[in-house]
């Protein structure tokens, strides 16, 4: 069983107050990687957590998303195509600020000792789809306007994260989603766009998977994200078995996330291993750095292979980041096929040992 649980006693009322509540909630998540920041002073507290971090002292391998360029890529992957993959994953990554912990979280689940608490935790998420709708906008901004005066075109932005970050719709409705928070200047320059999440659409506890939506009539935001979605492959990542030993095969693992609730950072490493718990449930081990706040981010594997004297690059998404392993630099995401698919498809997949859906693009 691949879960990390914490066991403790219920907190006293005074422990729920102020700073001590932040401290105790940080510890109430086992090996998961959410950051916990007081809503009143989140930016300062995030900056302090970043400075005082013991997991990755000084964060030498965390590259600010806005600065990422070809020179940061390992030599074998230093090409415009691989850079575009990284930029795309980065643009689709959002920060989550979850302002409530639901009473529905089960015992021994992350933050179960803080059920009912409004102490905020943060994580990361990846945009997976955008759907367009006609009729009066249903976003929270338009909530109080008469139907006829609302914009008549609106969008649902679908995102994926870990279930321990957003557990249900009640938590989603207390969650803010920050898009394009790519550097310190993003707030002052108005580049960071914030929406409220509205609803959890799919949840899977074994796979630590959650898919949720936010609603907006912001055409510019929707179109920009849509543009990046078009550049990304729709491929989901189901496994590597069989390819590990292929000659000429190599990979680079990349993740964009919001460590310590700070502006987006990019880390690089390698996919180390996959473990199959059942044919429909596996987890992935990678060597890239993550920190509290990285939970829910989706790593991506850029693969490089050579067949018939031709080089190929492909991009596959990993399931949402779930945990640290205890060793600095070795971290884990977990997935369940059922977390990704319609029930009928998931049943089909149960019988398949290995079926990666991927998009391979030839590079001359
Ligand atoms: Zn850190
Ligand atoms: Zn609206």
Automatic annotation (TrEMBL):
Protein name, as recorded: Uncharacterized protein
